[in-house]
Design goal:
Number of helices: 18
Number of domains: 1
Number of strands: 0
Strand content: under 5%
Structural class: mainly alpha
Shape: flat
Radius of gyration: 23 Å
Order of helices and strands: HHHHHHHHHHHHHHHHHH
Largest sheet: none
Length: 354
């Protein structure tokens, strides 16, 4: 070996060891919990320094915004990091292989369950849909996955658990998966494959690489960091917008008015909430601060969660993207079946949480 080559090798930086990666990650998580525990006194200090009239609507709104903004962003970062590590075991290609050849029924259950942990957003709807159908995944099973992935995702569950409580999060998980499973099964039973766009049926699946099996612990930690950087970087504006809307509701909307519109006594509130949510565009992280504020004002839980589910699962932008692979008739069936499921969830939630 030449002297120059030896010098180059000596100058190459060493990769941090696995133990160091794990140690730094553990310290970072501990620091996260320490900072999270100080958010309440910190936000109270900030608000006390502002020239606001005590007890005013403006003070209540700003107090909500100052406290919830770091709280939701920190919760989102932790949840996304943790699930980024989990997602490193489930690539879209691996998911496609796991679902290929699955029959309806058990296939719908498996697809809905995998949807919780698999990366999915509106921009990936078309390639995932085409990949699943071309790999031989039944249409109904594919729809179970496409419904569960955005609606019952880990961000929604993590934030619901932290902000509203484990009972609501667990019930939402159960009902959300039920909607995905039943709606997918119903669509499968209708045998609507002929309503796919012609080019989708002619596509053949490409090569599949199960690289997730070969990842090290460090690779998975890096995947979590990358997911956190990517997702939080994309949605932080939506989160702040959602918190601002929640702050306005918390500070200015009278409880009696909101309860009369979205309360259990108004039977029409659930379908109205679903119709209101469809044309909106947001994500779980952005809409949950609004959910928190609505619940704090006395809105019915079923009505609020029906609104949330319709925003996430039936958003108009996602329907526009899916139009590339689905006919208008199939999109109409999809919206109708899922919408009925969400209506059922809303009414059941209002009945259970009396």
């Amino acid at each position: 070996m030449s002297a120059n080559a030896s010098l180059i090798l000596r100058k190459q930086p060493r990769e941090p060891s696995t133990a160091l990666w794990v140690a730094v990650t553990a310290v970072s998580v501990a620091l996260w919990f320490a900072l999270y525990g100080q958010l309440a006194p910190f936000s109270e200090l900030i608000v006390s320094l502002l020239p606001l009239q005590r007890g005013s609507h403006l003070e209540e709104a700003i107090k909500f915004f100052v406290y919830d903004t770091p709280k939701v962003l920190m919760l989102l970062a932790l949840v996304v990091f943790a699930m980024g590590v989990v997602r490193s075991f489930f690539s879209p290609e691996r998911t496609r292989v796991l679902l290929a050849g699955r029959r309806e029924g058990l296939g719908n259950v498996a697809a809905a369950g995998l949807g919780i942990f698999t990366p999915f957003c509106s921009c990936s709807a078309v390639p995932l849909f085409v990949g699943f159908v071309s790999a031989g995944v039944p249409l109904g099973v594919t729809f179970s996955f496409l419904i569960a992935a955005p609606m019952v995702n880990e961000v929604a569950l993590g934030l619901l658990f932290a902000l509203v409580g484990w009972k609501v999060a667990l019930t939402y998980l159960g009902f959300g998966l039920s909607v995905a499973i039943i709606a997918g099964w119903v669509i499968g039973r209708l045998h609507l494959e002929g309503w796919l766009e012609d080019w989708v049926r002619n596509v053949r699946a490409g090569a599949v690489e199960l690289s997730a099996d070969r990842m090290t612990i460090v690779d998975r930690i890096k995947a979590g960091i990358e997911a956190m950087r990517d997702i939080v970087g994309k949605v932080w504006m939506w989160i702040i917008a959602g918190i601002a809307a929640g702050a306005f509701i918390h500070g200015y909307v009278p409880s009696d008015l909101l309860a009369s519109i979205m309360g259990k006594g108004a039977w029409w509130s659930v379908p109205a909430a679903v119709l209101l949510g469809i044309p909106m565009y947001s994500n779980a992280a952005g809409i949950i601060p609004v959910v928190e504020a609505l619940l704090g004002k006395g809105a019915a839980l079923g009505t609020v969660l029906a609104f949330m589910m319709s925003v996430i699962a039936l958003s108009l932008p996602e329907m526009i993207i899916l139009r590339k692979v689905l006919s208008v008739k199939l999109i109409t069936v999809f919206v109708g079946v899922v919408g009925l499921g969400i209506l059922g969830v809303g009414f059941l939630f209002n009945l259970i949480f009396t």
